[in-house]
């Protein structure tokens, strides 16, 4: 990130107003979300690619504290920003600013048969906030959530919930679920 210092730009966080400058300065580092993001996201992408290779139609969207909800092919810059140390009210303010609810509803209106939601507790608050009257399950035909066990209280009885403490366990479970989709009849779900 020495390149940013030479042009007096801070490391990208939640400062989207500087996005054009970042895209120009980080031209060699920015790119499609499925290439730029690493770790668990990369593992989830690998699982989804495997599911697609089996003939499943799968769309992938990411809850990003910098961008809101983005598609895997959206152009992003690497950033250092997390919701983990923020209060609920701060997370809600970011969610409003990024219009997460509106974007999520526009995606869910496409009428997916199954929705898998895998995220950590604070990112989950951006897309499911029962205290503020927004429950994602009300907009899904079938919802399966893979998140921290303590997040289960945020969902109703119709949601299939898999509590996994560690992100690596969540991505492994998602891979298994996608694999199972191709070998089990839909009536078994």
Describe what is shown at a glance.
With 189 residues, this protein is an alpha/beta fold. Helices cover 39% and strands 13% of the residues. Strand 5, helix 7 (121-127) and strand 6 form a beta-alpha-beta unit.
Could you outline the blueprint of secondary structure elements for this entry?
Elements: H1 2-6, H2 19-25, E1 31-32, H3 33-36, H4 39-53, E2 61-64, E3 68-71, E4 75-76, H5 88-97, H6 100-108, E5 115-118, H7 121-127, E6 143-147, E7 160-163, H8 167-183
Parallel strand pairs: 5-6, 6-7
Antiparallel strand pairs: 1-4, 2-3
Helix pairs in contact: 4-8, 5-7
Plain-language structure description:
The chain is of the alpha/beta class. It has one domain. Helix content is 39%, strand content 13%. It contains 8 helices and 7 strands, in the order ααβααβββααβαββα. It has helices at residues 2-6, 19-25, 33-36, 39-53, 88-97, 100-108, 121-127, 167-183, and strands at 31-32, 61-64, 68-71, 75-76, 115-118, 143-147, 160-163. The strands form 3 sheets. Strands 5-6-7 form a 3-stranded parallel β-sheet, covered by helices on one side. Helix 5 packs across helix 7 (121-127). The longest helix is centred in the last third of the chain and has 17 residues, at 167-183. It starts with a helix and ends in a 6-residue tail after the last helix.
């Amino acid at each position: 990130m020495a390149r940013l210092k030479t042009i007096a730009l801070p490391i990208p966080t939640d400062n989207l107003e500087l996005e054009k400058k970042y895209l120009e300065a980080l031209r060699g580092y920015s790119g499609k979300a499925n290439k730029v993001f690493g770790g668990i996201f990369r593992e989830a992408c690998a699982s989804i690619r495997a599911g697609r290779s089996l003939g499943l139609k799968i769309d992938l969207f990411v809850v990003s504290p910098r961008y809101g909800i983005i598609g895997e092919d959206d152009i992003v810059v690497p950033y250092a920003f997390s919701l983990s140390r923020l209060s609920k009210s701060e997370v809600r303010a970011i969610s409003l600013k990024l219009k997460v609810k509106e974007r999520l509803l526009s995606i869910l209106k496409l009428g997916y048969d199954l929705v898998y939601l895998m995220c950590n507790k604070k990112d989950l608050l951006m897309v499911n906030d029962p205290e503020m009257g927004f429950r994602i399950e009300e907009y899904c035909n079938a919802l399966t959530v893979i998140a921290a066990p303590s997040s289960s209280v945020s969902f109703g009885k119709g949601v299939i919930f898999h509590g996994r403490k560690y992100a690596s366990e969540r991505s492994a479970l998602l891979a298994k679920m996608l694999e199972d989709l191709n070998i089990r009849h839909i009536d078994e779900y």
